[in-house]
Amino acid sequence: MGDFMHQDRSAGRTAGRLGAAVTVCLTLLPVVGCSAGSGGVAAGEPGARASAAAAVSAKDGGGPGTASAAPTAASTPEPAALAQAQVNIADGRTVGVGMPISVTFPKPVPAADRKAVESLLRVQTSTGTTGAWSWVKDQNLRDGQRVDFRPKTAYWQPGTKVTLHVGAHAVHQFTIGRSLIASVDVDAHMMTVRADGRTTHIPVTTGRPGLDTWNGTMVVMDKAPKVHMDSRTVGLGDAYNGDYFWAVHLTTSGTYVHQNERADTEAGHHNVTHGCVGLATDGTARRFYDQIRVGDVVTVAGGKKDIVATGNGYGDWNLSWEQWLARSAAGETATA
Q: What pTM was computed for the model?
């Protein structure tokens, strides 16, 4: 298989983005992420990011939400791409501090139009935020089909109200929730979760040598209480084929934090998975699942794996600000 897989969510998600849905699994491929069965959501397909966020929102009890129409028409002609732009965050949603605004298009935006597109994707915030749009090469899209907005500083400020104007076509509004940062230390077999002024240490097991977990900063894309995983879809033979629980999705290629029976004995001691982060079945995985939300941040350090690519999910924070601006046509902007 390639760098994407299929995933089967018993919670009822429909087949989603990327043309071919990603797989989820208990473990990673050597050069990609975890993998699993068929029919689900993956980062990047044109027109699917908004529907995927809406599906997760409905699952989490927030409802899918619908972006309202923009109140006025543009005074000058807009690039045609804006009329078919899809936004990754459902209107009215509350997301974690790491969630970038990600806009995708059904076909690449010509380089000559990108500055105009960025300028017409107007971001307003309740707190002064300096940020920029940057064109991201999504793992499953062509160059010019995805542009993301992130703040210059480390993540969004909790409580920020964000409004995105998509030219004259739509207005999307969402809120940044409390801060949650989960830091995985591969070598120490430990995850430290900092949220709501509290710090919790959770023993974990990560990818075994040669199948290491991605390093770097990842952002929770979605989550599901049960995922069907089939190793045959990623070329691992009959290693596993079954349902796995409390799955928190981190990369398009299939990296998850989820319940793993082997974590009952190996968490805190050895790394034995094929790349995902495994949590014990004694309620540990369920508690982490219940605590975390879409847009929260998970960082991984240690081991020998490369830094996760920017377009493999939401790897935006792995670039320095200078690197981020290098792919921006309009440059840095201040919101108000």
A: 0.80
